[in-house]
From TrEMBL:
SUPFAM superfamilies: Class I glutamine amidotransferase-like. GO terms for molecular function: gamma-glutamyl-gamma-aminobutyrate hydrolase activity. This is Unannotated protein. It comes from freshwater metagenome. Residues 216-229 have a biased composition (Polar residues). One of its GO terms (cellular component) is cytosol.
Amino acid sequence: MKQPLIAIPGKLSPEAVGHRTPVVSCGQNYIDAVHRAGGLPIIVSPTNDRDVIASTLARCDGMLMIGGGDVSPTKYGATEWARLSGVNEFLDEFEIAACNHAIETEMPILAVCRGQQVLNVALGGTLIQHLKTTPDHRDTMHGIQVVPGSRLALAMGTTDPFIHSLHHQAIENLASDLAVVGTHQDGTIEAVEHKGSTWIVGVQWHPEDTARDDPSQQGLFNTLISHAR
């Protein structure tokens, strides 16, 4: 059986051990989770050439949007008021363009952490620049509530998963094409899904971190690959 190709928009780094030049990267946990699910991850180099983005994604069967730095507030019509980190407007523009193209071509998408934020911004939503309850979300394990019968619940096989969070931002105004399917007890939006697509799901946490030992987290990657087939 053909292994689906999963596009992963890569991150930019000015340096890495063993390289003389800037690099394009993706965390190994994401790659391992895609491999376990039966997919072949393809790291897509950031570019502002829309034709290159379109032709690259045309060869792929699904997309995984990964975590990273903060999205520039300029991308959702705001001014910066909080301490942000890792802001890169070139990368924002690349990921937003890739996300929009994938949506337009009905490609299945799993959007993780920053990926969920980019998904919301790409569709016209806004972000909370810094959560008042950040300590409850920053490098911690906690439970959330998932809407029964949602794509998320079906993929994970549970409505009360235990998750690993590592973020200080979250969705503020939800894009009209998205529906909330997961929440934290403090009201933070933890998961969304696209209303009109076959399978576009965003999660604010990092399922790749615990997927090796937690079937509910690996289930997200398994379901992405299933739809990519």
